[in-house]
Amino acid sequence: MTELAPTYRSHAQTRLIWALCIASVVIYINLYTVQGMLPSIAEHFDVSGAKATLVLSVTSFTLAFSLLFYAVLSDRIGRLAPIVVSLWLLAASNILLIFAETFDELVWVRLLQGGLLAAVPAISMAYFKEQLAPNFMLKAAAVYIMANSMGGIVGRIFGGLMAQNLSWQSSMGLVFLATLIGVTLVTYLLPRKEIKPVEIKEKVSLLRKIKQDFDGFVFHLSDQQMRLAYVIGGLAFMMMVNQFSFIQLHIMAEPYGLSRFNATLIFLCYSSGTFASYLSAKWILRYGSLPLFRVALCLMLCGTLLTLVDTLVAIVMGFLITACGFFLTHSCCNSFVAMRATSHRAKATSLYLCCYYLGASLGGPYLMLFWHKAEWNGVVVGSMSLLVLLLVAIWRLGIHQQSTDVLISKD
């Protein structure tokens, strides 16, 4: 029996990694499918294209702040239940999308979905840290970020294909079916046993629990290295995800003149980020996170500047390079936050992701100002200013790491 125990533990760890990666794909398909369907949504619900973008922005906004709620909840009742319940409710909410008759109804359902989508990203890294052996942790984080990237690619391309070939009701029915299959797999794969957080064993008053939760957030926000990791992730996503939105407008216009669906194929450039995420664990262990932050910044800078070359090939190459740099940054931030947090782990991760998605929300209006002034050239100028801020944040992080040249323990 003693010989079987390590094998059983390894099997349970593998199941957990598979389960949360599949859950991540489900989450990002549900989040980003509508981005590839915005023209179809505008036509079906008889609203302007600008107004149609609300279906994505309201979801991202509620997702960002719901992350904090799930961090508190999972520290109290455990990681398993919030993930499973939120995923099944997410699947059910897609039925409401099928029968949405007005744009207002659609927005309200998407607002609800933002709250349900937050559970998996808020809890996953803390779940990995508590359930996995140290040698599994970085590998799991890298594969998980890779799954995020794949979900983002599949969701957007999936949405573009459905918008071109199916009605709104049929499209949402297909999303419901895909979500249902994914949620069933996740429920089956998730191990039923988990290490319960210490906090839920304490018998204290409600006010005391609230104070403990508040103190948990303050604890991580008072850590300057944590704050810098939050800023780095938020600034990187603020630039990258919104660049992908505006480049579609650029390549649909002359001289490129791509169709709506062909323009969404630019999201295949996320594949370089998928590759970088997969290799990030090995690179972090070998080189440390701080050097990788610097490499990632150079990649995002070079990739962004390359898009100024007036050819479609240069634009595609630029976005492949930028996506690689961004996902390397995101992987380093995720791993650093998860490994650095010794308590209130879900709160640490949720604070990072809250900044991450708030960055995405703020980046749209910010780069829109530059787009109105000079279209894509203006977006590049706006991106350069964000990269300067990112350089300052990485430099400050280096100052606080003078005693060691790595951010993550190499246990």
TrEMBL record:
Location of the protein in the cell: Cell membrane
The Major facilitator superfamily (MFS) profile domain, residue ranges: 16-400
Lineage top rank: taxon: Bacteria
Stretches that traverse the bilayer: 16-34, 54-73, 80-100, 106-128, 140-159, 171-191, 228-249, 261-279, 291-309, 315-339, 351-370, 376-395
Keywords recorded for this protein, A-Z: Cell membrane, Membrane, Transmembrane, Transmembrane helix, Transport
Cited SUPFAM superfamilies: MFS general substrate transporter
Topology of the protein relative to the lipid bilayer: Multi-pass membrane protein
CDD domains: MFS_NepI_like (cd17324)
Main location: membrane
UniProt similarity note: Belongs to the major facilitator superfamily.
Listed name of the protein: MFS transporter
